[in-house]
Automatic annotation (TrEMBL):
<dbReference type="GO" id="GO:0005829">
    <property type="term" value="C:cytosol"/>
</dbReference>
<dbReference type="GO" id="GO:0003676">
    <property type="term" value="F:nucleic acid binding"/>
</dbReference>
<keyword id="KW-0378">Hydrolase</keyword>
<keyword id="KW-0067">ATP-binding</keyword>
<feature type="domain" description="DEAD-box RNA helicase Q">
    <location>
        <begin position="21"/>
        <end position="49"/>
    </location>
</feature>
<comment type="similarity">
    <text>Belongs to the DEAD box helicase family.</text>
</comment>
<feature type="domain" description="Helicase ATP-binding">
    <location>
        <begin position="52"/>
        <end position="224"/>
    </location>
</feature>
<protein>
    <submittedName>
        <fullName>DEAD-box ATP-dependent RNA helicase CshA</fullName>
        <ecNumber>3.6.4.13</ecNumber>
    </submittedName>
</protein>
<dbReference type="GO" id="GO:0005524">
    <property type="term" value="F:ATP binding"/>
</dbReference>
<feature type="short sequence motif" description="Q motif">
    <location>
        <begin position="21"/>
        <end position="49"/>
    </location>
</feature>
<dbReference type="GO" id="GO:0003724">
    <property type="term" value="F:RNA helicase activity"/>
</dbReference>
<keyword id="KW-0347">Helicase</keyword>
<dbReference type="GO" id="GO:0016787">
    <property type="term" value="F:hydrolase activity"/>
</dbReference>
<keyword id="KW-0547">Nucleotide-binding</keyword>
Amino acid sequence: MIRYTERMKTDVDDTKTTEITSFDDLDLSSVMRRALRDAGFEEPTPIQSSLIPAALEGEDVIGQARTGTGKTAAFGIPILEQLDPLEECRDPQAIIIVPTRELADQVGREIVMLSKGVPTEVAVLAGGKDIKRQLRVLENGVQIVVGTPGRLHDHLQRRSLRTDKVWCVVLDEADRMLDIGFRPQIERILRRCSKDRQTLLLSATLPPTVRKLAESYMHHPLVVDCCDKDI
Ligand code: ADP
Ligand code: MG
């Protein structure tokens, strides 16, 4: 049983419990279930069981779980399930902020894998990469952007990254990003996105710096702590 242990601004009555042991228990599209099968994902990991239903309901969620426990799919699945198709919206709908270029590539690949069966445009906007190519990709229309804070901020300043259609922002490895010193860039990105957006924050640890960021930029987030659970 997974328990939503805590809300940051707690009303205890909101504590929910849920039992999800199979992807079939989640209300996923048939194309997503197929993509999961093709990826060899047989059952959800604990962070996926907890985070996916809450994210699908539009909640802000803080997910705390160790490395290698499937956090990418935990936020990737609900985003992909709720995307407007490219022919309806050519501006980014979700921005996933990650600490490093390597992680941006990795998260981008995983999202593309999970989007199998539905044409989906994912742009990886990492620092140290050719910006002209990134500008062309953005110009052509994208649905999901994965990037490092510095480069995303750069694109915001150039107005090449539009945020008016963004309904979800993910802060992946938030503790690491703050350790690196990306707080100013992260805050500027968050401030440029609609206040009505959904914010999902993933972190291996929740030090006061991360909690403070969450308090400032998230809306009554649920805190899902899966740190005592392995896959
Ligand atoms: P984290 O972000 O928590 O460090 P990742 O999202 O990078 O973890 O996932 C680690 C690995 O586990 C990836 O190779 C991913 O494809 C795989 N994975 C994720 N969820 C599942 C699942 N439900 N079943 C099997 N493998 C999974
Ligand atoms: Mg990760």
